[in-house]
Write a structure and sequence with these properties.
Chain lengths: ~120, ~140
């Protein structure tokens, strides 16, 4: 039984990241997309002058890594349900890893870009 | 050599057939077990995939910052159109469903509450309705 010995951490971390994401996403939604009682988008100036403190950058880095892990691990779980062969297993695993790392890289770069233009 | 490639092709086709069969099996399972839990399982998957795909869109939108302030503001303004607002509302619904059902799954998993999973589903769908109604007022109107 493969399922008995493998995938515990994948399952467990999926739960943990989910719980952290519930908190993190709520904060993100309410602070970044809702004014007191109405939906708004945040434009460039607003982000640069209000939300580019080191704390918020760190918060978003954490949120980004959590959401990428949770999303791609979800894909992985769906993929495993199709009972793939060894080759597909290998390819999909590294495909997801590279997608995740690239996304995290781009996201980090965006955040740093915002922080660098802070206050100019 | 030719023979081998043909064999390989055949093998590929057979595995492809098996995959299709698998999909058909899933569909049959869904048709056989038409319980709320089964529907919610599929909705959970579909919303999960949709929200992950949105993550790509979100990062792509934000990456317009590399092209300068005006490019970024233009990209964001696309979400303030009527279509954008409806899109955001659908996103809110997808996230809400996924979040609430995720809470149900986690609670049932960690505290062995399989017996009340149906009750939990009805409670959470009630909360979902509240979120959907509030969402209409905050996001669309």
């Amino acid at each position: 039984m493969q399922t008995k010995h493998q995938g515990f951490w994948s399952w467990f971390l999926q739960r943990i990241t989910a719980l952290l994401l519930v908190i993190g996403m709520s904060i993100h939604f309410f602070l970044f997309h809702f004014s007191p009682n109405r939906y708004t988008s945040r434009y460039y100036n607003e982000i640069v002058y209000q939300y580019c403190t080191p704390g918020w950058i760190t918060f978003h880095l954490c949120l980004l890594s959590l959401v990428i892990y949770h999303g791609l691990n979800g894909f992985w779980g769906i993929f495993l349900d199709f009972n793939p062969g060894k080759r597909a297993h290998f390819i999909f695993k590294y495909l997801l890893w590279s997608i995740g790392l690239i996304l995290f890289g781009i996201g980090t770069y965006i955040l740093i870009w915002f922080a660098m233009n802070n206050g100019e | 050599m030719v023979n081998e490639t043909r064999k390989h092709e055949q093998k590929k086709r057979i595995t492809g057939l098996i995959r299709m069969q698998k999909l058909k099996e899933y569909f049959k399972d869904l048709m056989k077990n038409q319980y709320p839990g089964m529907y919610v399982f599929w909705i959970h998957r579909i919303t999960g995939v949709a929200v992950t795909l949105f993550l790509f869109l979100h990062i792509w939108t934000l990456s317009h910052v590399f092209l300068g302030k005006s490019a970024y503001d233009y990209a964001i303004s696309k979400f303030d159109t009527k279509f954008g607002c409806i899109f955001q509302y659908l996103l809110l619904l997808a996230v809400a469903i996924h979040l609430l059902n995720g809470i149900r799954i986690t609670v049932v998993d960690f505290w062995h509450l399989t017996r009340i999973q149906k009750k939990l589903l009805w409670i959470l769908s009630f909360i979902f309705l509240i979120i959907a109604v509030i969402g209409i007022f905050t996001v669309i109107l």
